[in-house]
Design brief:
7-stranded mixed β-sheet, 11 strands
Length: about 350
């Protein structure tokens, strides 16, 4: 049975009348719960969708950043030069060049002593073992942060790739020169007396790397002292093979900025060995003269280098600079005399330079 409102009696009894609803509202209070409409449901779905999209975008960005970091690190590793390059020449380079810093060196004292002799004609030092060799190094401008690398090599091309090491006797642990030294340093023939020196081995070649500080005020060079702890005549070491010292001016990236060479013989009798080697060059001169005399008179032998004599008058400031200029001129002519065999031609002019040297 239904009433006029279309509800059954049971349904109508379940509905609240106006008075009952008002009474219920007063008991609950005026703050009623909002109804969840269709529009609000759609807005809530949109908010949840936006949150999901934002999370996915952040995850995508993190992956991209990680990938970019890995690629950037690989690119940096490929582009940035390492301090110790992987590929190194097995044979030390011997060509001299002053470079942009005009890298030079000189002996602190060229006067002959009992333990050390210098031969200008040979550009070679003859020195006793365990004696100090004082050198001076110049570079201009005298920037800080540069390094001096000293490497001992064999002079002859057939031995250029062989490393120079001390003999077995001088490397013995009971040797007094080996006390309190790292075993890796003991095999080095050359020792630099600068305490900041580092001893390295690259492709079996041994070298000493020394930081170069700027010259002291009033000075234009940096002094450096070296010692040699093995002889050229030692059978199990250098085995009578001639040796050279290669000095290279380098920066922190191992870039070679200049290179100089000094021939050195570590021996028991420096004066005797110097005289012997210089006589070998002098004895070879008469043979050249005899061959020239055998040539027909109509033919004139032209020299293998420019022999025109120039007179130079310079005013040089500083005694060290003056000595450096004289030494450079002397070494150039001594080198040409040795290469061309015209020692007698160059000798008077070389003697003039020696007379001008104070």
């Amino acid at each position: 049975m239904t009433n006029t409102n279309g509800f059954s009696d049971s349904q109508e009894s379940a509905l609240l009348d106006d008075e009952a609803f008002s009474e219920l509202q007063r008991e609950i209070g005026s703050n009623t719960l909002p109804l969840l409409t269709g529009t609000m449901i759609e807005d809530d779905i949109d908010v949840k969708f936006d949150i999901v999209e934002t999370y996915n975008e952040e995850k995508y960005d993190i992956n991209n950043l990680t990938q970019k970091y890995i690629e950037g690190k690989q690119m940096k590793t490929e582009e940035s030069p390492e301090y110790y390059p992987a590929s190194e020449p097995t044979t030390p380079v011997r060509e001299e060049f002053p470079g942009c810093y005009n890298f030079q060196f000189s002996l602190a004292n060229q006067e002959s002593t009992k333990h050390r002799v210098y031969s200008p004609s040979l550009r070679k030092v003859f020195i006793n073992m365990d004696e100090t060799l004082p050198l001076r190094f110049f570079w201009d401008p005298s920037d800080d942060g540069l390094y001096l690398r000293t490497t001992m090599v064999f002079s002859l091309d057939q031995y250029a790739s062989d490393p120079v090491r001390r003999c077995h006797n001088h490397m013995a642990l009971n040797n007094t020169n080996n006390r309190d030294y790292d075993p890796r340093v003991i095999k080095h023939v050359v020792r630099c007396l600068d305490l900041s020196s580092m001893y390295e081995e690259r492709n079996e070649h041994l070298s000493v790397l020394t930081p170069l500080r700027t010259p002291q005020p009033g000075s234009q060079y940096v002094p450096m002292n070296f010692k040699f702890l093995c002889k050229n005549s030692c059978p199990s070491g250098m085995n009578r093979r001639p040796t050279d010292l290669i000095f290279t001016l380098e920066d922190h990236k191992r870039t070679v900025l200049g290179r100089r060479i000094l021939s050195v013989r570590v021996c028991s009798c420096p004066k005797r060995d110097k005289k012997k080697e210089e006589s070998e060059i002098t004895d070879s001169q008469p043979d050249i003269k005899k061959r020239k005399l055998c040539l027909p008179v109509a033919k004139k032998v032209m020299p293998s280098c420019d022999t025109h004599v120039f007179n130079v008058q310079l005013k040089i400031i500083g005694k060290e600079n003056y000595l450096a200029v004289l030494k450079y001129a002397y070494d150039i002519m001594a080198g040409q005399a040795a290469r061309t065999g015209q020692y007698e031609f160059f000798k008077p002019y070389m003697d003039d330079i020696l007379h001008e040297t104070p």
